[in-house]
Design goal:
0% strand
Length: 199
Amino acid sequence: MSAWWVLPVNYLIGSLPFGLLLGWLVRGVDIRKYGSGNIGATNLFRVAGFAPGVLSGVCDALKGFVGAYLATRFVPDPYLWLAAVLLIVVGHNWSCFLGFKGGKGVATTLGVVFYLSWPTGIICFLSWILTVAVSRYSSLGSLMGAILMPVFLYVFQEKSTAIWWGILTGGLVFLRHKENLRRLYQGKELKIGQKGESE
């Protein structure tokens, strides 16, 4: 029998707002009031510096890795598995601890990808680094990774449910970056290291 408990547990794991907690611990500030207002690693980097930003990204990625492990270990039904793995990212994006608001799910998504297919995870991470190095736009790197993710899950012959997860989660990344896309088009998007009232 499928372990239904994994679904709410994964949502709760995903909902843990590490960026917000680290902002309080390191700088004593609510990072939602600074920079982009986002709770993710990029905004924490702007507000609190490199080390807290990296730690936030690692913690968010671990949420995805642990959630993917739980789903794969305890949920044999492919449709429930898909729901369980999606709920990790949904929890980060719409956290029950933050009034169903949250981040953009990029690091958490990457953590899931590394569990499902570490070569795909490496490719997506390197594409983010390369895109950011060239453009200095973190959001553009995230969108590039979201495009490549389902493609390389397919290339590395992962299960169809993993590929569908990649497609759906890639869509969530684009949905959560719709304002970034607008600002990129308008030339108003903040670059890495650039501070401002809005991202």
